Amino acid sequence: MERTIQKKLSVGGDSWVTVDVYGEPDTPGLVVVPGVMSDAHAWRDVAGAIDAWPSVVVVNRRGRAPSGPLTNSYSLRTEVEDLGVVLDEFDSARALFGWSYGGMIALLAANERLIHQMIAYEPVMQPFGRHALPDLKVAAETADWDRCVEIVNRQISGFSAAYVDDLRADPHSWAILRRLSGPLYAELGALNATPPPDVMAQQAKQVDLIIGQPNRGTAPYGTSFDLVRQHVTHAGVHELPGQGHLVHIQAPAELGRLLNNLAAI
């Protein structure tokens, strides 16, 4: 599926979001909500691998170009309201998919409006990343984006120093990660600021939660996934063999196939 249009949508707080639309814009489709350290462009290969819906709308959340700033009033509620604007614009959407922080945003949105199918890949909830907030605060206040990238990969995701060195060895990729780390402190702060409701995705007719097999039962993503499951008791659980949290980068075609299969359930 090819990208056909990009739209700019005004949201609250003097900001805006853009969306990348693949396929037929006016047909019932899938809305994709990326998480932290990710933007709509990073999901292009996943969108291109999806054919179970006639359209795929990928949200470029505020805080990442060409979308607008987070603004001082930013919160998790801000994200849910932004997604509401997108869903109002694409009111024929049949399914909603969120990855990581985007999964939490989507699950909360599905408490407020009817969604035929809600899918989330390794959604995270508090206290995810809380221990790293003091260091992220210092790095953000000093605009030390190299340090932000190191913190998210080492202290939060638990990757090795060698893994980070490999990332840094690619100047282009490292520059992208530095840019995407700008809103990281505010986003993780928002995630940890408000306890989630006891039940999430209440208005979704069908809920499917996905976890990468290597993360099952292990911190940080598997343990956070288990916490989310306690709040989405009516969800079906699916495991993607051999894939971790960064599946949209490392195996986009495989994730696309899984989403296609889930659409048929």
From TrEMBL:
Highest taxon of the lineage: Bacteria
GO molecular function list: catalytic activity
Domain (AB hydrolase-1): residue spans on this chain: 30-255
Gene3D superfamilies tied to this protein: alpha/beta hydrolase
InterPro entries assigned to the protein according to its UniProt record, in alphabetical order: AB_hydrolase_1, AB_hydrolase_fold
Record-given protein name: Pimeloyl-ACP methyl ester carboxylesterase
